[in-house]
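cache lookup: miss for this entity combination. No prior model stored, computing from scratch. Input as submitted by user K.M.:
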Amino acid sequence: MMSERKVIIDTGNSAVAYAVKDAEAKVIAAYPITPQTTIVEKIAQFIEYGEMDAKMIRVESEHSAMAAIIGSEAMGVRSFTATSSHGLALMHEMLWYAANARLPVVMAVANRTLGPPWNIWADWGDAMADRDIGWIISWAANNQEVYDFTLISYRVAEDKRVALPAMVNLEAFVLTHTSMPFEICGKEAREFLPEYDPIWKLDPDDPVIMGNIFSPADTMKLRWDMWESIKRARKVILGAIQEYNEMFNRDYEGLIKTYRMDDADYAIVSMGTIGEEAEVAVDALREEGLKVGAIRINFFRPFPREDLVNVLNSVSRIIIIERSASLGAYGQILQDLGPTILLEKLQVDVNDVFMGIGGTDVSYEDIVNVVKRAIKGELKTLYWYGSENW
Amino acid sequence: MTEDTVKYLPLSKPKIGISGKTGSWRIFAPEINYDKCVKCYICVVVCPEASIFIENDRPKIDYNYCKGCGVCARECPVNAINMRRER
């Protein structure tokens, strides 16, 4: 029998759609928003052409889109939605509902700037506003990762040790509308992703009330359980990735990806496409004799504390590059990494550099520029790239 | 339960208890005049508490749970349901 697996050239949004098709999600509800729209358009096309057996629910808002798939997931049906920016913001309340009800829905977020001003380009700020809810959050750097992380997200989210929703982030246009080759698993995906077997569901023959009033003490136990579950998700992600690597010949390291870190004195820490661009910068810096390595956070929740400490404990300086800022504080990566540095007593200097905000292009040359200045001690701890000229 | 599983869920099991008998909330009680009733069963469909059921072809009200909202009386096309003040 011919293998179902094949390499295609298509956009990041199509990669999401193919993963959802291969996961055999049965209910999809979504509201269009640039740059997400072509994800659900592609899924709608799969359904229309009879290539996918699923129900597409057209809704009047993103809040309803998430509410609809919370409903279908509560019936024990694998469900999906996708959104971006303002749409994600409108969905915010329902994101809590999905997590607190322990419903492992999967959502793709096409990272886009929130306005005003009207801006459709990449920025991590939309997803960052939802990082504290109990969702498993990953950031892809290329279309292969977009496809793979979507399948892995279903597997991890639905695992009975986790039972939490998962969000896959792909940056606007840089990934969503950019074509590149990636391999799809076809029906073989189901060997990795078994039938959804929920830890609870709405069943008329065994009725339950979900979301009834609970005492403060019982509610605290529920939150503790979510805390423990997302902590356990690290182990579950590692196991799922290992299995995925073996099945489909991938080489994912785990929650983070390291590049030339073995003998590195300096580490660039970033995520998504900027994290991958940093690897090109590392090659350029190495040619100049600077021992720089790069670390890309693939899974931002659960935050890969242990994984980061293991590679950061031998460097003298960390240069964090962030495509979003927690205004009035730091970048969100530093906010999470900072306590880890403190608690693990790492002796490092840190630069938190804001680049790519509002969808500005970040080339490896920009990263080389920043890293060289940081190593020379010429960079402020908190630095907005280019701000000396503003 | 092992260490590795979800221990707590925001679920509860519904039970029929004295506090569940919402009929005590009622101020007006619907009464069906079977001489007028045409057995269209619209009242059965519209009752928001599912407290009207069909028995021997006729709609019947379960006063244990009827809260007396009056939707059935309002929707009855032949005015066969009258709302009588109980207290």
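stored under new cache key. The mean pLDDT of chain A is 97.
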